[in-house]
Amino acid sequence: MRVEEAILPGVGRKYTITVQSGDRIVIVVHHSGKRELQYFEAGGEGDEPAMALDLTDEEARELGAILAGVLFHPEAVGDTQSKLGQKVIEWIKVLPGSKLAGRRVGELTLPPGAHLLAVDRPGAPLIPNPSPDTLLETGDTLVVAGSREAVEALKRTL
Amino acid sequence: MHPSVEAFALAAGLLALGAALVHRFGFPPLPVYLLTGLLVGQRLPVQDLEPLPSLGLLLLLFSVGLEFGPDRLKGLSGKAVQAGFYDALALPLGFLLGLLAGLDLRGAALLAGAIYVSSSAVIVKLIIDLRRVANPESEVVLVTLVLEDLVVILLLALLGGQGPEGVIVSLLLGGIYLFLANLFGYRLVSFLESLSDELVLLLGAAFTTGTALLFHALGVSESLGAFLAGSLAASLGLRERFERLFGPVRDLGVALFFLVVGASARDLFQGLTPTLVVLALLGLLVKLPLNFLGGARAGLSRKRRLYSAFYLVPRGEFNLVLGALAQAQGYPLVAQVAVLLVLLSVPLGALLIRFAPELGRLLLRETPSPRRPARSS
Fold first, then answer.
1. Residue of chain B nearest A48, judged by CA positions
2. Using CB atoms, which residue from A9, A30, A36 is nearest to B142?
3. Which Pfam families does the record associate with it (chain B) (predicted)?
4. A3 vs B369 pLDDT, higher one
5. How many CB pairs under 8 A join A and B?
6. Number of domains, chain A
7. CB distance B133–A11 less than 8 Å?
């Protein structure tokens, strides 16, 4: 697989991915968060895409998670990777009225095996490895990783 | 009620109507704003719309500046940059054209700028709206546009003031801003992070217009000030937030700005001379073969070269800035050519870009010589 990256000033970034079969997929990540996907068949006629697809930021992340095997991992893949497949990353949004809002990270009780990787606050840079005194706000998104059971348990308690 | 509300309601309604009409045909709205101004400008009290149109232009230049962080200028594709050099040949050609038309050095340089610079605002929007972003020619065009903006900013710094003091003042102001940004930038950014969006919007607006005012007061181009404000904000890593906050305000202001330009262009047509028209047409044509060759240099297929030449037809915001500057410095001919170029090239360019695939099929099949199609359109 070959990945070429190009900057599109004023628009975003373009990734051209050529896979083993020679098929090409072009992904444009807009500054607005929109993703544009175009698919070109290997040796296809001309340079018009055979398929084009627009994704919102949220849809793209969901698709990415599925492709990465976060939600379901095929058995056929080798050992080390399937171990990775047992771990999941989840994005948990602090909704209005949630008991998480107004609490500090240190006050959260994370089940063993679950880790808080980052807090994503709209309009602010990502807060990686949030310190215990980071105050959670409505609208934040917690990025949680760990074993599937631990993360599921955490989601239930919230 | 204040009369501006009435003017605004009328203008916004007309613009919306125009935009809705062309939206049905997958056509971009910017040229329609211009034409709306041209058609109804006489009856519309456009001066009541101020300061929204002026603000629109400043914010437009601010967001052009936002695109220039050091991070954006690095990593531009080398091949596309070479296409930009071909494109820049329009500058000496435009300069020569100016001299032939009897202008002095400064006037010819202003004319060269007006002929050279395409409109990032119009073209980027068209490319996104028409879903051509992923195409290979778009990369070349977008990088070329960045280089053009950079060159024109230098040109503005050079010609913006009366004489050499202007350059020195521009450089000095830029230096002071950069120095302050280096000194307080980090603290400022972490301070801004703790503020609400509303406050950042107000602060950003005050900063942009304040910088423009300061530049104007010191006798240099206010557009340069707005641009500098933007690129400074970008270098501090505030780009995404500012783009998100200012996007809608800017779009509204820009729509009204185009309307006002259209309206004020009516007077221009009263003094339409053959020299003016010939200069504008030559200005339009001179870039087509250059960009076609540039596309070849960047490794595009023949069809894509033709597209990229079409894409770079629309002139816009910087032409109006250069035009205003030329008018102020006593070159009415250059000002007229600059505005006429916008009026001609935006609708024409929008059509060429919209129907580039159809035109490409038509032109490239009929004429095997690669250089003719670019001219004959």
1. B135
2. A9
3. Na_H_Exchanger
4. A3
5. 60
6. 2
7. yes
Is B231 within 8 Å of B177 (Cβ atoms)? no
Residue from A4, A7, A17, A57 whose CB has the most chain B CBs within 10 Å, to mutate: A7
Res. A78 pLDDT band, cuts 50 70 90:
very low
Which token pair is B145? 């546009």
The domains of chain B, with CATH numbers, are: 3-376 (1.20.1530.20)
Helix axes B332-354, B274-297, angle to 10 degrees: 50
pLDDT of residue A55: 93
Q: Are B263 and B44 in contact (CB under 8 A)?
A: yes
The pLDDT of residue B26 is 64
Residue B141 has φ and ψ, to the nearest 5°, of: -65, -45
Closest by Cα among B337, B231, B350 to B278: B337
Residue numbers in chain B where pLDDT is lower than 50: 368-377
**CA B211, CA B205: separation in Å to the nearest integer?**
10
Q: Which residue from A minimizes the CA distance to B124? A: A10
* Domain-embedded: residue A72: no
Q: Which domain holds residue A105?
A: 85-157
Band (pLDDT 50/70/90 cuts) for residue A47 is low
